[in-house]
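User: Hi! I have a protein structure encoded as tokens and I'd like to know what sequence might fold into it. I'm fairly new to this, so please keep things simple.
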């Protein structure tokens, strides 16, 4: 099942998440929200990534709780990296933390505090459907009038490259988890493509760390593992 909107929120704000989910799904907008859409025994971090992969919008329910939530910050970071539209829905008059401000300072905010909730939800529904109604880049691109067929050269035969095995991934994932939390194991797993050696994988996942000092510490600790 494909989704349209990923709801990012603190568990403290579950009542608002439920109200928003009900409002949007009643209008035909498919929402992904935890824990409802995480299957029993499914890895939480992997489910988050898979949910985002199916969505076009990350709807951030912004409050003092979500502002201080490392999990919410990681979800926003991943959504930005994946090119999702970020739509902040502010339910408290709180200024974003420095880490969140970096990602959402240029976004149009919808303020739901100090006003009727039903009116705020109606405005939110209108904003979401407007974004979803806009064509994606692939949809907007005109189809070529006549495809040009170029004979393909004979493909060389390659021996399948070895990928980094789970036991080799684990030490890297543990170091990354010190900074990014449970999502680290899934990021390392995805980076361990065939043909990538250990250093390639470390370099790839290091790009997920925004803070330069933390990135340097991660690279240093991973280098020490090899010594």
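Assistant: Happy to help. Inverse folding works backwards from shape to sequence: for each of the 227 positions I chose a residue that suits the local structure. Here it is:
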């Amino acid at each position: 099942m494909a989704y349209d909107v990923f709801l990012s929120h603190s568990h403290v704000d579950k009542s608002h998440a439920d109200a928003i989910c009900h409002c949007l799904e009643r209008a035909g907008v498919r929402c992904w929200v935890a824990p409802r859409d995480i299957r029993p025994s499914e890895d939480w971090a992997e489910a988050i990534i898979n949910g985002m992969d199916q969505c076009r919008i990350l709807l951030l329910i912004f409050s003092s709780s979500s502002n201080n939530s490392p999990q919410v910050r990681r979800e926003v970071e991943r959504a930005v990296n994946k090119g999702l539209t970020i739509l902040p829905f502010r339910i408290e008059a709180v200024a974003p933390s420095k880490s969140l401000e970096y990602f959402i300072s240029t976004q149009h905010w919808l303020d739901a505090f100090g006003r009727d909730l039903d009116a705020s939800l109606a405005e939110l529904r209108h904003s979401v459907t407007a974004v979803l109604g806009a064509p994606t880049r692939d949809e907007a691109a005109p189809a070529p009038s006549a495809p040009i067929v170029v004979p393909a050269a004979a493909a060389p035969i390659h021996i399948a490259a070895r990928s980094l095995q789970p036991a080799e991934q684990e030490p890297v994932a543990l170091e990354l988890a010190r900074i990014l939390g449970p999502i680290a194991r899934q990021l390392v797993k995805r980076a361990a493509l065939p043909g990538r050696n250990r250093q390639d994988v470390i370099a790839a996942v290091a790009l997920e760390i925004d803070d330069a000092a933390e990135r340097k510490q991660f690279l240093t600790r991973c280098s020490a593992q090899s010594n």
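A useful reference point when you look it over: Residues 206 and 215 are 6 Å apart (CA to CA). Feel free to ask if any position seems puzzling.
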